[in-house]
Design brief:
This protein has a five-stranded antiparallel sheet. The protein has a five-stranded antiparallel sheet with strand order 7-6-3-9-8, with helices on one face. The longest helix has 13 residues, at 17-29. It has helices at residues 17-29, 86-92, 158-164, and strands at 13-15, 34-38, 41-46, 52-57, 60-66, 72-75, 81-84, 93-98, 106-110, 113-118, 124-127, 133-136, 141-144, 154-156, 165-167. The chain has one domain. It has three helices and 15 strands. The relative contact order is 0.23. Residues 1-9 have low confidence and may be disordered. It is α+β, with helices and mostly antiparallel strands.
């Protein structure tokens, strides 16, 4: 029997949404929340109703979500997949063209910004805005789509964040 557990099998402290919001507000008050803009291309395809997407990073399950009719599956350059509603997808991505190496996907330029800070603390689980648990590790980013709104706070694993976002140098 293997006595070593992977991170996905370990028990993480769960932070309530209110606690995550308080962490974000504290970082905001301490001027740690910065603006970042997407700077990558992604692949995307239409989701199948009821399709389960497990977002894994370096072989570790970070979140699991169930697609609805009309949703879009987005695949980042590092390979992790996640579900986006059609409405949000249309706001955040611009079609580039077909992805010949992956026929069911099309290539898109990622648009938009997030506000975020680098989390420092023990590994925890939080509830993402879409209702699923997310693992947040020390050094990961906690982000919001809007600087002063707290309904959409979630986590992005730090290596994925670095591959996807760049700091916006404008003072907003």
């Amino acid at each position: 029997m293997n006595d070593q557990n992977s991170d996905s099998e370990k028990k993480f402290e769960e932070l309530a949404r209110e606690e995550v919001i308080e962490l974000y507000k504290k970082a905001l008050n301490n001027d740690l929340v910065k603006k970042y803009e997407k700077s990558t291309k992604v692949l995307a395809r239409n989701a199948n109703d009821g399709e389960i997407i497990i977002t894994s990073i370096d072989g570790e399950e970070r979140t699991k979500n169930k697609a609805k009719a009309g949703d879009v599956i987005v695949k980042n350059p590092s390979g992790e997949e996640y579900i986006v509603t059609k409405e949000k997808f249309n706001q955040r991505y611009q079609l580039i063209g077909d992805a010949p190496e992956v026929p069911e996907y099309k290539e898109y330029k990622a648009l938009g910004t997030v506000w975020g800070f680098q989390y420092e603390g023990p590994n925890v689980k939080i509830e993402a805005p879409w209702g699923e648990e997310q693992i947040v590790k020390n050094g990961d980013m906690i982000v919001s789509l809007n600087k002063n709104e707290y309904d959409d706070i979630y986590s992005i694993q730090i290596d994925v964040f670095k591959d996807t976002y760049k700091k916006n140098e404008n003072k907003d």
